[in-house]
Design the sequence.
């Protein structure tokens, strides 16, 4: 086979066979197919799509491109969760401690940021000393000990996705349903999950812009998961404005600390509780979603989720006390963006806030770009809240004057204020099983 022929085949809208898909994935991992050809193939998929059968074959080929994790020694039912990416989305860092505190172990591999969206591993890297990479033996041992571990995707687990994940970010091929579905599900399958809960986001800050696109992606992933014998549940959630108030790695860790101590933003808590309840249902820990929500809220109220989070940080080498004392690296330069008039804040554009945070240094422009962990944005007001003229709406954090000046340009006219309170859409659109 020749890669150029397979690019041409997909470019012309033809279906690829199982053997052809396996050839592409295996050859790319071995280095026999260069990035420029893989980019062309990804772009062909972006425009031409893939059938459900092709997407399932791509998922399996990626899952089998490296080692597969055996979590059978953990006992019980292992459930994983994945978000399709959003601005200010730090739900994994809340869900892990809460769900583990309710008796379901969480052994999770997470990714780094893609474009204007943040990555869980980047956020955890903001904790001094935290080890995002563990051996499989260390990973499993930690879950056995405290019920929780979150690590970066290792080189031996789904290496095809690790390579393609970074490539998509810089070739404008992120928002492709077959590529997203295969990326997400291959990692869950390789990680040994028996139940999978998916947070499929839609709106300006998500890769799926409409409910219809999100629903299509959700149904694709649920179909793949159920076909492969994994109970799969998808929750459609709104990402038209950032989740929570903090956007940026250190800033989001501090917000997680607040949330686990009962001081979290309402929207962040609502989405986290919904997802966590479904994880408990899929893990057979509770009889229904309502009971799951009760357990999760109690884990916050009692402090068990907060203590679990601190244990998790410590076990992976992180300085938990630095989080407790709020001593994380935060950019030294900060500047408020003030309201020009009095009224209700209208709906924020989550995508533009994500781009703003990226310009300040909180995200990647290329797959090798460094991230400034201390930079980002705080939304001092959110949509529907009242603000007086001259009060801050946003607080920008940058490491130098040039960054802040660029941020100020992007922040101009980013937020509008009106005399009437906006009608806000529901955070949770629907659940697909």
Sequence:
């Amino acid at each position: 086979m020749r890669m150029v022929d397979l690019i041409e085949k997909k470019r012309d809208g033809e279906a690829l066979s199982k053997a052809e898909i396996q050839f592409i994935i295996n050859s790319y991992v071995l280095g026999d197919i260069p990035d420029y050809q893989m980019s062309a193939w990804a772009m062909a998929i972006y425009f031409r799509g893939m059938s459900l059968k092709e997407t399932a074959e791509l998922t399996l080929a990626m899952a089998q491109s490296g080692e597969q994790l055996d979590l059978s020694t953990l006992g019980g039912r292992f459930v994983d969760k994945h978000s399709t990416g959003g601005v200010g989305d730090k739900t994994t860092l809340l869900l892990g401690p809460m769900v583990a505190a309710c008796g379901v172990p969480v052994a999770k591999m997470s990714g780094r940021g893609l474009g204007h969206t943040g990555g869980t591993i980047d956020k955890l890297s903001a904790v001094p000393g935290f080890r995002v990479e563990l051996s499989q033996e260390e990973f499993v041992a930690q879950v056995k000990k405290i019920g929780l571990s979150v690590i970066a995707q290792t080189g031996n687990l789904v290496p095809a996705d690790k390579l393609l994940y970074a490539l998509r970010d810089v070739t404008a091929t992120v928002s492709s349903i077959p590529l997203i579905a295969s990326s997400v599900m291959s990692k869950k399958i390789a990680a040994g999950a028996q139940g999978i809960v998916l947070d499929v986001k839609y709106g300006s800050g998500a890769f799926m812009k409409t409910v219809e696109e999100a629903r299509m992606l959700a149904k694709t992933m649920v179909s793949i998961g159920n076909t492969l014998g994994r109970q799969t549940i998808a929750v459609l959630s709104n990402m038209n404005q950032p989740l929570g108030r903090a956007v940026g790695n250190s800033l989001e860790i501090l917000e997680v600390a607040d949330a686990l101590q009962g001081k979290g933003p309402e929207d962040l808590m609502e989405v986290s509780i919904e997802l966590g309840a479904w994880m408990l249902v899929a893990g057979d820990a509770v009889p229904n979603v309502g009971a799951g929500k009760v357990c999760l809220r109690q884990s916050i109220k009692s402090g068990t989720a907060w203590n679990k989070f601190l244990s998790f940080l410590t076990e992976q080498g992180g300085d938990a006390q630095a989080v407790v004392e709020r001593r994380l690296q935060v950019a030294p330069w900060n500047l408020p963006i003030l309201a020009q008039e009095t009224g209700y804040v209208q709906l924020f554009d989550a995508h533009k806030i994500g781009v703003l945070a990226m310009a300040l240094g909180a995200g990647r422009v290329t797959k090798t770009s460094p991230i400034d962990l201390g930079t980002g944005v705080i939304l001092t007001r959110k949509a529907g809240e009242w603000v007086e003229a001259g009060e801050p709406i946003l607080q920008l954090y940058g490491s130098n004057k040039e960054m802040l000046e660029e941020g100020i340009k992007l922040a101009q006219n980013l937020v509008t204020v009106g005399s009437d309170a906006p009608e806000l859409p529901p955070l949770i659109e629907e659940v697909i099983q």
Q: What stands out?
A: The domain at 333-418 is CATH 3.90.1170.30 (Aldehyde Oxidoreductase; domain 3).
